[in-house]
Amino acid sequence: MGFGQKSRMAAWAVGTLAALAAAPSGAAAEATLVEAIAQGKPLIDLRARYEQVDDDAVANTGKAGTVRARLGYETGAWNGLSALFEFDFTRGIGGENYNSTRNGKATYGLVADPDVTELNRLQLTYAGPFDTRAIVGRQRIILGNARFIGNVGWRQHEQTFDALTLINTAVPDTTLTYVYVAGVNRIFGDDTPVPNAATGAPAVGHYDSDSHLINAGYAGLPHLKLEGFAYLLDLEQSGTPATGTPAARNSTATYGLRADANFTLGAGVTAAFAGQYANQSDYADNPLPIDLDYWLAEGSLGYAGATFGVGYESMEGDGTVGFSTPLATLHAFAGWADKFLTTPVDGLDDRYARLAYTTDAVPVFTKTTAALVYHDFEAERTGADLGSEWDASLDLVLDANVSFNAKYATYRGTGAPGLLDKDVFWLSATYKY
Length: 433
What we know:
- By secondary structure, the protein is mainly beta.
- Helices cover about 5% and strands about 50% of the residues.
- It has 3 helices and 19 strands.
- The chain has helices at about 10-20, 25-40, 245-250, and strands spanning about 40-55, 60-75, 80-95, 115-130, 130-140, 160-170, 175-185, 205-220, 225-230, 235, 250-265, 270-280, 290-305, 305-315, 350-360, 365-380, 385-395, 400-410, 420-430.
- The protein has an 18-stranded antiparallel barrel.
- About 35% of the residues are buried.
- The model is unreliable at about 1-5, about 20-30 and about 195-200 (pLDDT under 50).
């Protein structure tokens, strides 16, 4: 695992930390640094999962047993500085009867959890003056609700960023975030030579980047939170020409606004509403002319642990390309069967309803949450039927460290290419410390 261009920001963090550690003189300064390191905490995140994918687009059902160990250490603070390192180890167990994106089994259902042993995070954090925090190195970044920028935490190997992040909270109730992204480390791992069976294209493990992410949040109004953002993505696939690649076609400038409102209606009833709009245009070396919109409207009511909500999400398409969110936590949106990880060229309208119930009354477990979601999909530009999906989940929290999850998604398509039926079942156990 080399650093080089793919992880130059992470290497910068290591060099900076080494220089700072060597700089102080005198026993007192050295003792303070040693104490900060000793007073840190280990990072332990273990997850075992069984995933079964029955996809009519391929001949064989994918059946994957995988385990993930994410291990690291975070130091305490010394003169405002702290450091963190973390490695990911993911392995398939019980035979590889699934397409991991890199094992050559393209006739099996896709489970995008290849065997990896990689640096997950390596960052240096500085808590500076004027309520400003700086983070440099390989890091996890989640902005807003992760619809545009996220870590893809559902997969065993998460998405991280080689980046410089600046966060300022000097203005009351306001959080200002700027991120320069030099590289994107995707869930497939660095070495992904096998084409993805779902798309026929290589599952690119790393993007070179010259991207800028700006996010501003304000929570100073009663019942209301506001967010504005500008995400300027300049992405390239390592070792390939800048234009014409899938990465370059995802180089876009996206500007948007979001509002979230929460109310207590009385008698234990709560209400929540969300609205979001964004416009996307071509940026950097993108060879395509793009001018596409994104719309979201959601509303929900809650009572005694139960929540019912409805929503509408629309991503435009112009017949050549759809509104793109290549750095998002995509699994959380447009159905858990992952049929629309890439927006269709005619766009996507997703109308959905969700019913959930949370209780602490189940014996043994401190919290239990059951959820049921329905999606109806259409092409935004033409109104063509793109199928429907039911999703169901059960989350069981034993304590602060141990949790269990069962989840099922069943998509029913129209029979057209790319719209074939798909069923996915997951069973997971997680330990975090």
